[in-house]
Amino acid sequence: MSNPTIIETPSRVVSPDIIAELQTLVHEAGQVVVHCIQTTPYASYIRIWPTTYLYDQHSDHSSELVHAENISYFPTWKAVEAGENHFTLIFSGLPKSCLVFDLLEHCDNQSGAFRVNSIPRNDSDVYYVQL
């Protein structure tokens, strides 16, 4: 598995309707939205464990995964095509004092878990990462 990358300016445009809906959630509920891009060399299967969290690097706070789009929850697998696959994870809010956080999935196969370390906090709480 390659090292994850934080994408500052995504090349693929997410539907404006979806972004508007998610922005409403972020502002009204204080949620954090992480758009993920995973590239696979061949058709495969993906899923997310509900034991996926955001961890504030400067406190003991963790934000829970509250919703996922375009990816299945454990134990169900979702078939994906070779190439870029996109999914979105929505987490409960981070504390206002949080400046940097990690996205960590805890699962029974830790070598295949999603991990993105040292994500710098932004004002929108909407992030794009390449896994």
> What is the strand content?
35-45%
Number of domains: 1
Count all strands and give the number: 10
| Helix-strand string | EHEEEEEEEEE
- Shape from CA axes? globular
Sheet of most strands? 8 strands, mixed
With strands numbered from the N-terminus, the spatial order across the biggest sheet is 1-10-2-7-5-4-8-9
Number of helices: 1
Supply the helix-strand structural class. Answer: mainly beta
Gap from first CA to last CA:
8 Å
Poorly predicted ranges: none
Mean pLDDT metric? 86
Helix content: 10-25%
Structural description of this entry:
The chain has 131 residues and is mostly beta strands. The protein has one domain (5-130). Helix content is 11%, strand content 44%. The protein has one helix at residues 16-29, and strands spanning 5-7, 32-40, 44-46, 52-56, 62-69, 78-80, 83-91, 100-105, 115-120, 126-130. The strands form two sheets. It has an eight-stranded mixed beta sheet with strand order 1-10-2-7-5-4-8-9, covered by helices on one side. A hairpin with a 5-residue loop joins strand 4 and strand 5 (62-69). The radius of gyration is 14 Å and the shape is globular. The mean pLDDT is 86.
What does this entry show, briefly?
With 131 residues, the protein is mainly β. It has one helix and ten strands. The relative contact order is 0.31.
Fold blueprint:
Elements: E1 5-7, H1 16-29, E2 32-40, E3 44-46, E4 52-56, E5 62-69, E6 78-80, E7 83-91, E8 100-105, E9 115-120, E10 126-130
Parallel strand pairs: 2-10
Antiparallel strand pairs: 1-10, 2-7, 3-6, 4-5, 4-8, 5-7, 8-9
